[in-house]
Amino acid sequence: MVRGETTADIRKESENSDEATKFLRLRMAINCTDRDIVYEKKVHSNYWVLVNYVPAEHGSLRCSVFITYTTHGDYRYLNNVAPLVERWRAPISLALYAPGTDFNKTVSSILWLRQCDPQRKLIRKWVSFHIYFNANHIPRQVYNQQILLAKQIKCTKVPPFANVSSDELYRKQMELKYPINVGRNIAKEAALTHYVLSSDIELYPSPGLVNGFLLMLAANMHLLNSTRPLVFPLNIFEVSANSTVPTTKKELKYKLKTGQAIPFHRDIAPQFNIAPNLKKWIQHVDYSDTMRVFCVNKRIGYWDPIYIGTKQDPVYDETLSWEGMSDKATHSFALCLMGYRFHTLDNAFLVHRPGINQGYLDDERLRLAAHIRRKLRRQLLIEYFYKYGFQLGCIL
């Protein structure tokens, strides 16, 4: 033992060495190509996309030893970026829908986050912002990227995304539907890593999820060689408006016991959101906090999980909008038809930003949702059977 070196120091050094060895094995086993962040203008369906318009500053990274949180939104939801990146601390790929006059407010909001937010250093390091808009709703002015990145704003002003109602949005005034799955696909396509968590911007991950997941994979290399395609769902919860977001499963269990937390959309649409074996997952105690696979299932019923997967998993159906709901239904159906197995993770979870959803929906959205459900069963069901084949037990 070197003078001044404690047993704890030696143990920590040994653990770090062991972790590095595991990550090296993992890097060699995952077949992916490292890429740099590149800004590009491209056409995606009926949309113009500015990919990496405001890029993260993390520099080069290994595609095999990070996970990218891919997500979407409009500028009203950018108040979620700081708490999200603080818990994730890894690449985030965010696609923002900004047609017409929403573009300027979106850009101003991004600059405020990068220059003024208390978490601005983490935001600049990890978050890449992509902007997309309809080809027939182009903003009046699109800034040159270099000019935009050099622009300075006053941090004394209120954030442009603060207290914005939906009625103020250009897309609402022009009666444009929110193309949620276009955003999901753009963000996922722009990710530089092999593994991605395609999620919604208001869902906050438990801290340490990235490192814990990769160490779990490194300890279970057989999962990389599975003959069946697989993904890793995360159980999702809601907490009351005056509650903090739990960071560990132990803390989450306490909030569930005291009524401060509930399973996600328990009282609204449990058939789509309540995972198989959720009660057992909640009751199970693992004081090590080590991430592991809790259970393995096929897709059951109408369950639409959010999961860690890869960029090779199916894309989301861009004919579906947020207003019509059911926007993840065909994606989950495709996974079922393709024989995916769902390896639900323990000691890892997602929590919606504080405030339990009361489930109010206006009549117009309910009518549209009913129309979309008819479309799913009369048209898309047959299309997906033709595309992926028939599997007993898979429903849409």
UniProtKB/TrEMBL annotation:
<dbReference type="Pfam" id="PF13896">
    <property type="entry name" value="Glyco_transf_49"/>
</dbReference>
<protein>
    <submittedName>
        <fullName>Uncharacterized protein</fullName>
    </submittedName>
</protein>
